[in-house]
Specification:
262 residues; alpha/beta; Rossmann fold; seven-stranded mixed β-sheet; 7 strands; 20% strand
Amino acid sequence: MSDASQNLASCCAGLYELPIVEQLLGESFHPGGIKLTRRLADASLVSPKSAVLDVACGNGSSARLIAAEFGATVTGCDYSALNLQRATDAAQAAGLSDKTQFLRASAVQLPFAPESFDVSLCECSLCLFESMDTALQQLHFVLKPGGRIGFSDFFLNAPVPDSLNGLLGKVLCVANAPSAEGYREALSRAGFEFIRIRSVNWTLTDMIQRIKRQLKLLATTSALANAGLPTDFGDPAQTLADLESFIATGGAGYLIATARRP
């Protein structure tokens, strides 16, 4: 992993460890929350017989949902040791230790044998990785023949405004996002077939309204000032306003994609 990519991965992992991030984004850390996780798992044909890999699993909320509601066995991996511990503790408290496990790993260098999983999932993180092509190749490698990949992420229809190219824009997965066709081409390059991409832009409206409410609430306290955010994080309210405008004018959207390894 290059120094720049490792620094971004470490920075993003550190930000997602901060309590204020969950306050702003919700427990799932991604647009659509558990509602979209259910939809993605359905679209990826997760079943009680599935061995599922959840890449960039964060605090494990999606892994717990999939284990509890779909009956699958889930392995979660993430770059944040703290969030992995939180995920392990939460799974144990929910009585799901026998259905879940969590370990620290990079998506571009997965520590699994070939053909280990039936389904691989990745929510709102694919364009944060050092190389999306390498990550998709790795996910293809660890899937069994006929296995499915499912992911959700931002896509772009226009160049990103300068105001969204900062750290917060990168953490929100906007700054480095490709077009919807860019995802399709990357999946094809990695060897996937039966690619299906669907827009779920409603998730962005929900996310923005949630963050607005939380920012308004936090403005009445010292929580935002004392949140431990990096100095180059920027003004969340202004970045959010710029993102809302960019989405409203059709510059960006949100999608779910599924495909199959032959």
